[in-house]
């Protein structure tokens, strides 16, 4: 099932937090780890906020490539303020690839699902939560499940 741009935009409106701090980052990261373990999947996880990595974990069977994907997905979210999955779907609808646009450095940015903006209600964008290791829609779904769980 492929999520529509409208559904993806609605997720970003609904999945905002009342607060975000180091304890929230830890709760989000550990929820993702436990959920991935329960589903018996391997992902790399990052919770990034206020200009720094607040939580990071690489499960068995992941590699440094996953960490690079995380960095590029996160950079896209922080630059454009949209989930990396939304960016990819939006550009696909425009019949273009995000990474092939002349103003995009594909070594720094990508539009593959798995990174989602962390927004605090009445405050705005403060970071991103990212996973890598599954098909992009599954990465995206895992992150949105985590945000729903800790709201």
From TrEMBL:
TM region positions: none
InterPro entries: PduO/GlcC-like, PduO/GlcC-like_sf, YBR137W-like
Species in which this protein is naturally found: Photobacterium galatheae
Top-rank lineage group of the source organism: Bacteria
Pfam families attached to this UniProt entry: HbpS-like
Name of the protein described by the UniProt record: Uncharacterized protein
């Amino acid at each position: 099932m492929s999520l529509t741009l409208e559904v993806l935009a609605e997720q970003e409106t609904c999945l905002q937090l009342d607060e975000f701090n180091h304890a929230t980052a830890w709760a989000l990261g550990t929820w993702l780890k436990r959920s991935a373990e329960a589903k018996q999947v391997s992902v790399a996880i990052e919770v990034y906020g206020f200009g720094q990595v607040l939580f990071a974990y690489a499960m068995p069977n992941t590699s440094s490539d996953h960490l690079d994907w995380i960095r590029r997905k996160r950079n896209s979210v922080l630059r454009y303020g949209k989930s990396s999955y939304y960016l990819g779907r939006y550009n696909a609808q425009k019949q273009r690839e995000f990474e092939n646009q002349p103003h995009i450095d594909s070594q720094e940015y990508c539009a593959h699902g798995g990174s989602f903006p962390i927004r605090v209600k009445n405050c705005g964008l403060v970071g991103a939560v990212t996973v890598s290791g599954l098909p992009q829609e599954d990465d995206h779904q895992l992150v949105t499940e985590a945000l729903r769980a800790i709201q």
